[in-house]
């Protein structure tokens, strides 16, 4: 591949195109020219870690040893930006409206087993599912023994999932949370870990972390009361977005919620949902058959 070097490393148009096509093929994530600087920074780190001389060398490595390099490359290149209670209005809505609604409906139900299922489908380093767990406990901890409550947290990146499952963060990550929330759900480290915090066991017990590529098969068998799909849809092209919305629709209980990120929308799939708030969408209680895609 052409070098076009003017510094130690420069990313040629051919190499950038290769990376974009590789990422899109493997993950469905759409990278364009606006992401070139981000790709350059992360690609530079990759070739330093692999002790290679050029971007071209690594492109060749991906082509010749895909089984060895694919997972490492996808982990390094995909975006993972998150925080506790990011877009707080979503969690406020859960606590004020959705969780009381679920509790009320199931109290009236004749079914013996009362359950809540929530899916964080692009959970990154775990702040989102832990925020969901805090919201659930704040809303229903006194009733928790009567309920089967589970949060599924998935991501394509095995590295961030490992961090999420560990549940250890820098103290600064929770500085903006109310002191009572910090004290109730986070344990401050001591000694050499004095600048770290760990999420409490009662939060971790609610969550199952699993690696999942959204473009591959979804092994879940049950339906969800709420699905979080925030700030990931924007990385897919429009046809892929519509395919994913169709799949999410099938995995949401009638009357359940799909929650997107602040800059995302359902596009043509909006007609199958009603608005529940800012980027909060409700599946009808009685659902018509909808076409995939």
Q: Can you characterise this structure?
A:
The chain is α/β, with parallel strands linked by helices and 293 residues long. It folds into two domains: 13-77, Chemotaxis Receptor Methyltransferase Cher, domain 1 (Orthogonal Bundle); 88-165 and 201-282, Vaccinia Virus protein VP39 (Rossmann fold, 3-Layer(aba) Sandwich), CATH 3.40.50. The protein has ten helices and ten strands. It has helices at 13-27, 36-49, 55-64, 66-77, 88-108, 127-140, 158-166, 179-185, 201-204, 238-251, and strands spanning 115-120, 148-155, 168-170, 186-188, 196-199, 207-211, 224-229, 252-260, 274-277, 280-282. Strands 6-2-1-7-8-10-9 form a seven-stranded mixed sheet. A three-stranded antiparallel sheet has the order 3-5-4. α5 crosses α6 (127-140).
Strand count, sense and barrel status of the largest sheet are: 7 strands, mixed
Mean pLDDT: 87
Computed Rg: 21 Å
What is the assigned CATH homologous superfamily of the largest domain? Answer: Vaccinia Virus protein VP39
H and E order: HHHHHEHEHEHEEHEEHEEE
- Residue share in helices? 40-55%
The number of helical runs is: 10
Low-confidence stretches: 1-8
Strand-residue fraction? 15-25%
Counting helices, strands and paired strands, the structural category is alpha/beta
Using the alpha-carbon principal axes, give the shape. Answer: globular
Supply the number of structural domains. Answer: 2
SS elements, strand count: 10
CATH topology of the largest domain: Rossmann fold
Please name the CATH architecture of the largest domain.
3-Layer(aba) Sandwich
């Amino acid at each position: 591949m052409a070098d076009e070097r003017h510094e130690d490393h420069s990313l040629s148009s051919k190499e950038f195109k290769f990376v974009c096509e590789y990422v899109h093929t493997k993950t469905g994530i759409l990278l364009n020219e606006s992401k070139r600087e981000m790709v350059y920074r992360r690609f530079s780190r990759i070739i330093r870690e692999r002790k290679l001389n050029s971007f071209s060398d690594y492109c060749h490595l991906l082509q010749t040893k895909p089984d060895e390099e694919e997972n490492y490359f996808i982990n390094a290149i995909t975006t993972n930006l998150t925080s506790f209670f990011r877009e707080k209005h979503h969690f406020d809505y859960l606590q004020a409206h959705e969780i009381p609604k679920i509790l009320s409906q199931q109290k009236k139900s004749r079914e013996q087993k009362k359950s809540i299922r929530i899916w964080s489908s692009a959970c990154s380093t775990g702040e989102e599912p832990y925020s969901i767990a805090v919201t659930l406990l704040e809303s229903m901890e006194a009733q928790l023994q009567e309920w089967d409550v589970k949060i599924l947290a998935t991501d394509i990146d095995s590295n961030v999932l490992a961090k999420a499952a560990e549940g250890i963060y820098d103290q600064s990550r929770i500085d903006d949370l109310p002191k009572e929330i910090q004290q109730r759900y986070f344990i401050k480290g001591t000694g050499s870990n004095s600048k770290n915090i760990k999420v409490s066991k009662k939060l971790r017990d609610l969550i199952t972390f699993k690696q999942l590529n959204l473009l591959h098969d979804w092994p879940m068998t049950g339906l969800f009361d709420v699905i979080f799909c925030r700030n990931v849809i924007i990385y897919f092209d429009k046809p892929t977005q519509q395919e994913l919305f169709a799949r999410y629709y099938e995995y949401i209980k009638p009357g359940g919620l799909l929650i997107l990120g602040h800059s995302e929308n359902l596009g043509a799939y909006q007609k199958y949902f009603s608005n529940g708030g800012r980027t909060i969408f409700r599946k009808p209680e009685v659902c018509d058959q909808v076409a995939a895609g």
